[in-house]
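Hey team,

Filing this mostly as a record. A colleague (T.K.) asked me to run one chain through the structure pipeline before their review meeting, and I want the input and output archived in the tracker in case anyone asks later how it was produced. No errors, nothing strange. Just documentation.

Input sequence:
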Amino acid sequence: LQEKLRAQAISDPLTGLYNRRHFEEMLDTSLNTAKSEQSYVSLLMLDLDHFKRFNDNFGHDAGDYVLKEVSSLLMNTIDDDDVACRLGGVELAVIALGRDAEAGTVLAQQICNLISGLHLELKGLSLGKVTVSIGVSTFPDSQVDRSNLVKIADVALYKAKDTGRNRVIHYNEVRQLASLKSEPELDSDDSNQSSTVRVLANK
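Output structure:
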């Protein structure tokens, strides 16, 4: 019974993914482990593109169905040691353990391709194509604490949205472009860490 209650406390009831609370705990744990073992952690921040149209055109049942199908694909794609979470709305995340920037980007691109290849139907009605934009950040290549690792993944996600959606961008790419101008400023306030994604969710 205690295990069942524990599972319910850390899971998102709609998708079966871990919730934000567990995400924050696991990201802290993963970063501490990576620091002590001198290994890597890549963070993937995912946002479904034009998701609002599923709710508007087909109803909220269709939107829920899309979220569940994408979440199921996510769980079947990542490694057993990785952690997939729903942070809220259509905002998802994957903590990919032991993956450097290149390996994290490869995983993100695999997820992006698989989602865009989904053919979703609900009650015999085709829902059309679903795509995802993904921003990636990596420890220790990027900032070292949880707050900034999430923020710079959000910055990369915003860039993926801004440059056409249905794509993957690692923060290192953003940083290389920014070196010609000025690097994005990072606020240490945890409460604002995902505001960029929430603003973009309905675009």
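Quick notes for T.K.: Residues 28 and 146 are 6 Å apart (CA to CA). The beta strands are 41-48, 83-88, 91-97, 121-122, 125-126, 132-139, 168-170.
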